[in-house]
Structure formats: structure tokens, C-alpha cells
Specification:
This protein has about 290 residues and is mostly beta strands. Helix content is about 0%, strand content about 25%.
Length: about 290
């Protein structure tokens, strides 16, 4: 979704490389979008930039990757967007389904919180943080120290930088040895659909906990016209650890995690809700009665 290099389609100027990475740089849509009949907008989460783990190959924010975009269904034009992780290096794509529901609160927040209007809630992947508590939804999350309450972006984000630093101990750049980042690249609620209880105002997310370790490896291009060159690229080495599943109940009004259950294996399916107003999932039973 880099767009053409023109004022009519902004975005590609945030890819500041010299080999046209914006043309094939990712941001793909591979999960179901949402539709808001009140605003006539369709809302979609977008995928990670490419190459996934070498942000120096594509300096800049890399719009519109790792983002949520809202499109006007009548014109097809971009109404608004929010990018969660500019210049990503962990494959933290945001293609999960963005649920829409009404709440009385009108606070504008981000990362497991509201964006644009009071009826839109973004239950983003739990590697992202809650602004009000400054605590991660995932049990282990240290790629950023928190979010800026004004912008919703990581506190380390610097718009003047072409290659973001974030937390250096968790961000492997070219020439770096093995560095451990939490959560894993598909940790938290990724593609798994989230369930919502409109009576209790609870969202239920299922997903994966864990971390991964990788070195900083340069990705080469074939020419100034783009095209990845695997033979000329440096070898990337990675390992994973602490993998297990989780089911989290998240209060959409207070922004608090009210209950959490873990499983021995990671969970790739979504949550569901039935007529008794409780979530249905194999691991949900340990969340407790009434949730």
C-alpha cells in the first residue's frame, strides 16, 4: 500500500530508500476488514513491511504498513489511518480484525484502544501497550517502554529519524549479534478474531505468548529498480522461546486486563461468544465464571 509517488497518493515518500522498496514493500491485506455503516467507512488492518527484519533496507516510516486504514466506500479514498509501528523490524503486522462497537467514553487513545470516533475500538495485537496503565497485555513485552499518550506511538519514536531505535536491546540492526525481543513476531492477538460482550463491555482475545532472538542481517537488492537478492544478503539466524497460548479478557471501558488464562500450546484460532454471553474457546474455561 505504498502508493504512487504523487501528491494524489501520499505514502510512498515515507520509503526513503534508493531501490524502489515502496513498490513491493508489503502492507498487504490478508484478513477480513470491518464496516461502519454510520460513517460509510471500511476499516482494515495492514501487514508488515518487507523485508521484515532489515529496517535499514527501507528507511522511513514505511506507510501504510503495520497500520489501520479507513476507506470511504463511496469514493475509495483514504479517510484516515493510524500506524502502530513505523519502520518495523519484528514482523509486527496488524492485519487482525478491527471490531467496531459503541461505548460511552469518548477518549481518543491507541493500542488496544479507540481511534477516530467513540464507536471504534482497535483491539490491536497485545504486543502493544495500554496507555492508561502503561503495562503490556502480553506478559512479556519490551520492544518499547510504552506509548506517547498524545500520539499513541511508541515513546521512542522520533519522526526525524529514518531508522528508528526503539529499545536497542530488543532491536537487531545490521552488524548486531543476537538480540531478544518480546513478544514473538506472531505473539499476542495477531490474525485471530476477537469476541466482544456488549453487556459487560469485555473483549476476549486469544493468541500466543513468547519471545524470539535474532541477529541483524543486511538484505540486498538486485538493482535500483528493486527486487530482493537472497544470494547477496546476509544470513539471518533466529530462535524462539517461551511459547504458549493465552486467553485474555480486556475491559474496553477501563482499559484493564480483568482475567487471563494460559495454555501449554499457542492458540491459532479466534474467540467466539454464544447466547449465554460468555466466550467460547477451549481455553476460556479458566477465565472464571461471569466473564
Amino acid at each position: 500500500m505504498g502508493g504512487a509517488r504523487s501528491r494524489a497518493n501520499p505514502g510512498s515518500e515515507t520509503w526513503k530508500d534508493d531501490h524502489n522498496a515502496w513498490k513491493t514493500g508489503g502492507g498487504g491485506l490478508w484478513q477480513t476488514g470491518s464496516y461502519d455503516p454510520a460513517t460509510k467507512l471500511t476499516i482494515w488492518g495492514t501487514g508488515n513491511p518487507n523485508p521484515q527484519y532489515d529496517p535499514q533496507a527501507r528507511p522511513g516510516d514505511n506507510l501504510y504498513t503495520d497500520a489501520v486504514v479507513a476507506l470511504d466506500i463511496n469514493t475509495g479514498k483514504l479517510a484516515w489511518f493510524f500506524q502502530y509501528t513505523p519502520n518495523d523490524s519484528w514482523d509486527y503486522d496488524e492485519i487482525g480484525v478491527h471490531m467496531l462497537y459503541d461505548l460511552r467514553s469518548t477518549a481518543r487513545t491507541a493500542r488496544s484502544s479507540r481511534i477516530s470516533r467513540a464507536t471504534l475500538l482497535l483491539y490491536a495485537r497485545p504486543h502493544q501497550w495500554q496507555l492508561h496503565q502503561e503495562r503490556p497485555v502480553c506478559e512479556r513485552s519490551h520492544w518499547t517502554k510504552g506509548l506517547d499518550p498524545k500520539t499513541g506511538k511508541p515513546v521512542e519514536y522520533d519522526p526525524k529519524l529514518d531508522v528508528q531505535a526503539y529499545v536497542p536491546d530488543a532491536r537487531a540492526l545490521r552488524g548486531d549479534g543476537m538480540k531478544r525481543a518480546c513478544p514473538t513476531w506472531h505473539g499476542g492477538v495477531a490474525h485471530q478474531p476477537v469476541a466482544y460482550n456488549p453487556v459487560k463491555h469485555l473483549a476476549y482475545g486469544v493468541g500466543t505468548e513468547g519471545c524470539f532472538t535474532q541477529n541483524g542481517a543486511m538484505v540486498a537488492y538486485k538493482s535500483a529498480d528493486g527486487g530482493l537478492n537472497p544470494k547477496a544478503s546476509e544470513k539471518r539466524t533466529y530462535t524462539s522461546d517461551l511459547y504458549y497460548g493465552s486467553v485474555t479478557a480486556f475491559d474496553t471501558v477501563t482499559h484493564k486486563v480483568v482475567a487471563k488464562a494460559v495454555t501449554e500450546i499457542e492458540i491459532r484460532s479466534g474467540a467466539n461468544r454464544h447466547r449465554r454471553r460468555r466466550p467460547l474457546h477451549g481455553a476460556a474455561g479458566r477465565l472464571g465464571r461471569g466473564l
